[in-house]
Specification:
about 375 residues; mainly alpha; about 0% strand; disordered C terminus
Length: about 375
């Protein structure tokens, strides 16, 4: 008799037929799979949401002289809390809001501080440094997130991942070069060093926030992450609003235009946070961040009509390079040894581009320590 179990492929490995295929055919099938296409489309949806926040903020400043980033973010966190915290309130047990607040409140408070201050540092940096520097130094978030993913989540990166990241960064370099040719490096602010440091700090805070988001949505739930981020984010940003922007908010000449732009900004950022949890759940935080590199190009394209920005063919080349790198990165699994929530054996076999359970390997002392640290912080 035939041993049925012996004929089944190992978890996280391709089937024997796939193994006999040439490597380029196997990669080709994965690149053009529905899973990768879904991730790419989600990444561009997120970029469009970010583009919406940039455009509405610019219109508030240019048309109504309103520069209140903390207030705008507070509205977003409040919306997240209003929707997802209420949703969580209907749950009971360990997934209910009472248990979470009792046992994990301080962890989510720290996460909210990191996320709120990351947003604040990025916005504040524009007062001191140039758009060129922000675009370049913002990419610090990518290697920082990869290092954190290896250290804490024990992700395993393959050569194709590094190649994909290089291609994406070359795309960013092409975009920056196009900005230089179009003269967008003009108008430097004072205190360039302060601005550059703020960008680097903001990028590192983003990396920490994205890492925590990946852990929570894959090990716990998307609703829990969004509910707690909204609840504590509203508290932190509300406190910062009263300290820094209360006078600016009082001086706003409110009208329908201002109200619609505030609503547009909050809606775009609300959609961004909501969709990002879904994207991270089905890929990885690093993959999603690579996809977000196209947000500046969408903003430049829309800014050509709204703000008179110059648009060069190099931006199209930059967009193509980023999409190619993003697709390559998403097509090959970064195995995560502890993450395989909600996946059946059949789903794992049929879709080897998703992050699945890795083969058993001996953990290094560093990996063991990082796993314990992650358990302490998030359990």
């Amino acid at each position: 008799m035939t041993d049925v179990g012996a004929s089944q492929p190992l978890l996280g490995h391709p089937t024997p037929t796939t193994c006999r295929d040439p490597a380029y055919r196997h990669l080709w099938r994965k690149i053009f799979s529905w899973h990768v296409l879904k991730i790419v489309l989600l990444g561009q949806l997120l970029s469009l949401f970010l583009c919406g926040t940039s455009v509405t903020s610019q219109l508030l400043v240019d048309n109504y002289m309103v520069d209140t980033p903390v207030t705008q973010n507070f509205i977003t966190y409040f919306l997240l809390s209003l929707v997802y915290t209420v949703w969580l309130a209907f749950r009971s047990g360990e997934s209910g809001i009472v248990y979470i607040l009792k046992n994990k409140w301080w962890k989510y408070l720290l996460l909210a501080i990191v996320d709120v201050e990351g947003n604040y540092c990025m916005v504040k940096a524009f007062q001191y440094t140039t758009l060129i520097n922000v675009q370049l130094l913002d990419c610090v978030a990518i290697p920082a997130l990869m290092v954190l993913s290896w250290f804490i989540l024990r992700s395993i990166f393959k050569p194709i991942h590094y190649i994909a990241v290089v291609v994406c960064l070359l795309g960013v370099g092409t975009m920056v070069y196009a900005d230089v040719l179009s003269g967008r490096e003009d108008g430097k602010g004072s205190g360039m060093l302060i601005g550059d440091l703020l960008v680097i700090l903001g990028a590192c805070l983003y990396a920490i926030s994205d890492l925590c988001q990946e852990y929570v949505v894959k090990m716990l739930s998307c609703v829990e992450f969004l509910a707690m981020l909204g609840l504590f984010g509203a508290f932190v940003s509300g406190t910062q609003l009263m300290a820094l922007e209360s006078a600016a908010v009082a001086n706003i000449d409110w009208n329908w235009g201002v109200g619609l732009l505030f609503a547009g900004y909050a809606s775009c950022l609300f959609g961004f946070y909501s969709a990002m949890t879904f994207a991270v759940l089905h890929s990885s935080a690093t993959s999603v961040v690579l996809g977000l590199l196209t947000a500046d190009i969408y903003t430049l394209f829309i800014g050509r009509f709204l703000f008179g920005y110059k648009f060069s063919g190099l931006y199209i080349l930059s967009f193509v390079m980023i999409i190619v790198g993003f697709t390559l990165y998403s097509s090959v699994t970064t195995y995560i040894s502890e993450f395989s929530p909600g996946r059946s054996h059949e789903e794992t076999v049929n879709n080897d581009t998703e992050e699945v359970e890795a083969p058993l390997v001996s953990a290094t002392p560093l990996q063991t320590m990082s796993g314990k640290l992650c358990t302490i912080l998030m359990d």
